[in-house]
Design goal:
VanZ like family protein, 182 residues, mainly alpha, Teicoplanin_resist-assoc, VanZ-like
Length: 182
């Protein structure tokens, strides 16, 4: 198999990740930033874990639903952000840190944008749950998928290179010379 086909696969993978990331962010924006027509709203929650404690007091079914919604809202970012990056050989901890930081910034942006939307209130616990969801999704999916893709790529590396490529390395790039103006 030619070396160029791996590059095309990475480009397609990154493009699919970017398209899915954009679609997910549009959906999240629509869900979280649309005005709600409600007769009253609760006060903003700026005390960490107060909203989670209040959810737990509602019973196990309702608490699971509310906390699960917070965890799942931005969880796909834990997979889509590294997918859009397209890197196979990267430190797992650096990837996790980068992904969680980006997820946290996106969640913070959503919370700040909600201050101007009627019926929506700021809740620091949703920031915590969203960021935790991103981290869990990343930890559960990305390392396993990267390892699988690396094994698949190494399996192809043993294949016979294309005759045009020297030892599977490809042609040496050249830069055309430009003359100096008088």
């Amino acid at each position: 198999m030619r070396q160029g086909s791996d590059g095309q696969t990475v480009i397609r993978f990154r493009a699919a990740g970017a398209a899915l990331l954009l679609a997910h962010l549009l959906l999240v924006g629509w869900l979280t930033l649309r005005p709600l027509d409600v007769p009253w709203t609760t006060a903003s929650n700026l005390q960490p874990l107060a909203g989670i404690r209040a959810d737990l007091s509602l019973g196990p079914v309702e608490a699971t639903r509310r906390i699960g919604e917070g965890l799942l809202l931005l969880a796909p970012l834990g997979v889509l952000l590294p997918m859009a990056g397209g890197r196979l050989t990267v430190s797992p901890w650096a990837s996790l840190a980068r992904t969680v930081a980006a997820g946290s910034l996106i969640s913070t942006t959503i919370e700040l944008a909600q201050t101007g939307v009627p019926g929506q209130v700021v809740d620091v616990d949703s920031l915590l749950l969203n960021t935790t969801g991103v981290a869990l999704a990343h930890l559960l999916v990305v390392p396993m998928c990267r390892a699988r893709l690396r094994r698949r790529k190494q399996g192809r590396a043993g294949a016979v290179p294309h005759p045009r490529d020297e030892a599977g390395q490809g042609a040496t790039p050249t830069i055309p010379r430009v003359g100096i103006a008088p």
